[in-house]
Amino acid sequence: MANKCLVLVTVIACAVSLTMVNAKTITVGDDNGWTLGFDYAKWAATQEFHVGDTLVFNYGAGVHNVIMVNGTAFKDCVNQPNLALFSSGEDRVVLKALGNMWFICGVGAHCEN
């Protein structure tokens, strides 16, 4: 029994390592970056995301920001309360778990537009 447990632990460790080796960096919006007038839902539908991947949001600092919100806040374009706020112009978010993530811009009426 002890050998079976050791094998299982080894397989799990290898799977996690393999996931991290295969992790990739994904630029949100590709060459468009994080901007107005771009269909991010359509873009996201063409991507394959995995735990360990890093999302990169490129935009002009001060022109936009990135706010991580829950699904309800995303639907309602509400930026408070938020899960995280980024404003560097080259923000990185590591995907740490499976599931949906929602991001909005909180500058002016950008979310509504």
Secondary-structure blueprint of this entry?
Blueprint: H1 2-21, E1 25-27, H2 40-45, E2 54-58, E3 66-69, H3 71-76, E4 84-86, E5 90-94, E6 102-104
Parallel strand pairs: 1-2
Antiparallel strand pairs: 2-5, 3-4, 3-6
Membrane topology: Single-pass type I membrane protein
GO cellular component, one term: plasma membrane
Domain Phytocyanin: 24-113
Summarize the structure.
Helix content is 28%, strand content 20%. With 113 residues, the chain is an alpha+beta fold.
Structural class: alpha+beta
CATH topology: Immunoglobulin-like
Provide the low-confidence segments as ranges: 1-18
**What is the helix/strand order?**
HEHEEHEEE
Shape: globular
Oligomer: single chain
Notable characteristics:
113 residues, alpha+beta, Immunoglobulin-like, three-stranded mixed sheet, 28% helix
Task: Give a written overview of the molecule.
This protein is an alpha+beta fold and 113 residues long. It has one domain (24-104): Immunoglobulin-like, CATH 2.60.40. It is 28% helix and 20% strand. The chain is built from 3 helices and 6 strands. It has helices at residues 2-21, 40-45, 71-76; strands at 25-27, 54-58, 66-69, 84-86, 90-94, 102-104. The strands form 2 sheets. Strands 1-2-5 form a 3-stranded mixed β-sheet, with no helix packed on it. Strands 4-3-6 form a 3-stranded antiparallel β-sheet. Helix 2 links the parallel strand 1 and strand 2 (54-58). The longest helix has 20 residues, at 2-21. It is globular and about 40 Å long. Mean pLDDT is 84; it is low at 1-18.
